[in-house]
Amino acid sequence: MTIDPRASLHASEQNNKSFWNALQEFFFRPSGPQTLAVIRMMTGLMIAYIHLIWMMDIESFMGSNALIDNSTWRSLHQNQVADTKWTYLAATESMTLIWLHEMLACIAGLLLAAGFMTRSTCVLAWFLTLMTTHRMTGFLFGLDQVTIMLAMYLCLARSGSVWSVDAWVFQKHSELLSRRKWLQHWMGMPAARGRADSRCWTNTFATRLIQLHLCVIYLFGGIGKMRGEMWWDGTAMWYSVASYEYQSLPMTWTGNFPFLASIATHITVFWELSYCGLVWPRWTRYWVLGIAVLVHGGIALFLGMVTFGWMMIVANLAFVPPDTIRKLVFRNND
Question: Considering the entire predicted model, what is its pTM?
């Protein structure tokens, strides 16, 4: 039996072509902005909330009286390539400038949530929050990191092209904006006149990056848990809900039912490890997302981390198609 080299070469070319076509379809197929619009609203509000909370005791975090002052901050990050962080807030002790920074960041978050000059305010909110979090060494939590992650990817999308001030202005003054291309660009509106809800490849690209980032978070979270004995013997969930440091509701009664805590522990580990594989197929996706709501909802209700649990649920919305969001949640708002 002889093998035609030309036929083999043709088959290889076809396979490569199919692979690149599938990759292009996955990352760059135009999609609507509805899902990202919801994430934008929640992220903007959370950015404003984070900065508002920091401003309530800002002198403990920045300035000359900070718990970790500028000289200590620089010594912690000096010559550490893997942990290099830059922020101009580490170069000033002026509380006036620091207050101005925090107030501007809070306003940028509110404008992002409202969808006003969305592309500009998204970049501004992300950058100002990043500068603050880089300065907050020793005081950061998962909430800050997840919120910054979402804001960063939203900078790439046109999340303000629907359910926003920008969309309303675009519809009312499309003729004027068509002659102000630069303004239209910084609003993040499509070029097509009168189509504020047009599909765009940047929406898909930003969504995919959020999805892949979540897969990495959960995979390494599961691997990290497997390094602990309590996640193997099934007691980790009990110790979590019984900790008075995090306990917001009395859950010590679960000690009478150790098998429940054991089941919840092992389901959590399996869910985190399998998330990156099971969240993609349609017939398992909503089971995985349902468990995500239960896990993060439980963290919010029982462990006192309401904002973190909420933002993780918001991040998981990235796996809900835009058409589903439009039909099920905002059916009458289009």
Answer: 0.88
